[in-house]
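subagent[fold] <- orchestrator: predict structure for attached chain, return tokens only, no commentary.
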Amino acid sequence: MSYLVNDVYGMYKCDSPDGICFMGVKTIIGEEVIGKNGKKLGNIEELMIDMRTQHVAYALMTFGGFLGMGERLFAVPFRAFHNDGIKGHLFLDVDENSINNAPYIEKDNWPDMADKNWIREIHAFYGVEPYQVGM
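subagent[fold] -> orchestrator:
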């Protein structure tokens, strides 16, 4: 589904060629993520906000499995996503083979998301700089 469908307030107006400038959280949760090959990679399940810096640090994305079985949960740095503002999709510059090798979260064994080594590993995999200076 396109997040543009969920724009009940008409808030997605922006003159940027890079897509939407500001997005509502309710329209992102449940949104499909499209990989670089144009295929669906997964869905956004939750956003993780760093309360110290006030940044949306990660989007938790599910991938794989069938009817919830065998599904994996990934913390994707939020700055790794982009949108076109036209079709109303979130895009991630990885494909299905790459995401299979991505670090994922075991639902019963959450990582310490403030751990600098974990932060470096996740950001390096997705090819984006950590949002905090000095990491």
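orchestrator: received. Logging for downstream: The first helix runs from residue 25 to 28. The chain has a mean pLDDT of 81.
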